Amino acid sequence: MSLIDDIENSSTDNLKDKQKPWAEISLDGGELYTGVLDSPIAEDWSPILRGFGLDPDVFEVVGDQVKMSKWQQSKRTESGDRDIVWLYAYKATFRRKLSTAISTVDIDEIRKHVRKWKPSKITKPVDDVPSTLLVCWADWQLYKSASGGVEATTARVLESFDKTVQRVKELRKLGRNIEGIHIVNCGDPIEACDGMYASQLFSVQGGLRDQLRLALDLWTQGVQTLAPLAEYASFTSCISNHGEWQRKGNKSMTTDSDSADGFLADALMRVLDGSDLIDEWNIPHDQMVMQSEISGVNVAFHHGHKMVGKEIDWLRGQSLKQLKEVGAEPEIWITAHRHHLKMTDYGGVQHFQAPSLDTDGSPSGGSKWYSDTTAQWSTSPGTLTMLIGHHDPKKWSDLAVL
User: Fold this and answer.
1) DSSP letter (8 states) at residue 342
2) Is residue 334 packed enough to be buried (19+ CB in 10 Å), middle (13-18) or exposed (0-12)?
3) 185 vs 249, which has greater pLDDT?
4) Residue 9 carries which DSSP code?
5) How far is residue 181's CA from residue 122's CA, in Å, rounded to a whole number?
6) Cβ–Cβ under 8 Å, residues 139 and 243
7) % helix, strand, coil for the chain, step of 5
8) Domain ranges across the chain
9) Cβ contacts of residue 49 below 8 Å, gap of 6+?
10) Helix 208-226 / helix 260-271 crossing angle, nearest 10 deg
């Protein structure tokens, strides 16, 4: 039975009940019944809502969920005659407004603004807040035979030095206020000779002595090329798995401090002694995590080979460990080891994974073990660079793989 029939078929007493308005109100909306009205509702439900104590600025009637009844009823006039009048009743659903409604006029104005918009002219303002260019050398694995071998890898490394010099020039033209250069060995500068995987002893192109000499030559050349590009320069080294010494049966026989990464950093510091090229050295003893304050931002470095379980859980745990040990929790994490570029923003911490230079970007290049076990490979070999500092709300900007 329809609302019309329900009302028209009601007795006088029941009709009085039907004429009573009612509302079922919850936090986010509800239903209402207007009772019997002698005139229709046009479009403005504000008086009805206010009648139930509802603010029309907060609540609105759902237009496609309104039911209306309309019927005729006899009415005695002042002369004693009877006349026919129309009566109305509405049942409607109302809800809390999700957002402030935008009128058609406002929408048209927005569209006009969009159509008239033109790109602004490029200006070159200099950043008021300085920043530091972070340069991440990762996974060169010198003397590995893949992707053209040591000659091709060396060429890629030298090319990245040249691209980094050009990158600094480009950033300064954009107005970046670069106060420092921070160079990081993110690990695995050499391939080592045995113990990482079954075929390593048979595929490596040179002995450990040759690998260390070439790595030291490249590190020296890299620092001499990049350090003069800013007033302040710093160098950090991370301990890595291919740099572990005194291995037997794939197990280290000495401590983590017995490392090619640490030795090469020690040697580099001695080679450059007196040159004033590097203002700050961050050389590990046996620490797996190295942390530096770079243009006011706490950045942590780890090769990545000790990262186990869920990445976010590992990062959170290590961040709390750093807070306890060095008194500052990292805001940015840099790792390597997995040979491909990745950036993950966890909110509380931002994680960057540096790509490698041991590959030419082909499926057969880079780490065969990694490709065999994961079916993944890096298509973008290069050196990870970015600006670090409070010049940007993210505390980093201008990321580029060179």
Assistant:
1) E
2) buried
3) 185
4) T
5) 26
6) no
7) 30, 30, 45
8) 3-96, 131-401
9) 55, 56, 59, 61, 94
10) 50
Q: 349 near 333, Cβ under 8 Å?
A: yes
Q: pLDDT tens digits for 95-124?
A: 988 766 677 777 888 888 889 888 877 666
- Furthest-apart CA pair in the chain: how many Å? 121
> Is residue 171 within 8 Å of 390, Cβ to Cβ?
no
Cβ atoms < 10 Å from Cβ of 245 = 15
Sign of CA dihedral 219, 222, 225, 230: negative
Q: What DSSP character marks residue 171? A: H
User: 146-162 b/e with 16+ CB inside 10 Å = b?
Assistant: bbbebebbbebbeebbe
Q: How many C-beta atoms surround the C-beta of residue 130 within 10 A?
A: 20
Whole-number Å distance between alpha carbons of 137 and 357: 8
Structural class in CATH, domain 131-401: alpha beta
Q: Pull the structure tokens for residue 234.
A: 């710093």
Could you read off the pLDDT of 122-142 as tens digits, one per residue? 666 778 999 999 999 999 988
* Beta carbons of 210 and 260 less than 8 angstroms apart: no
- Tokens 């309104």 belong to which residue? 66
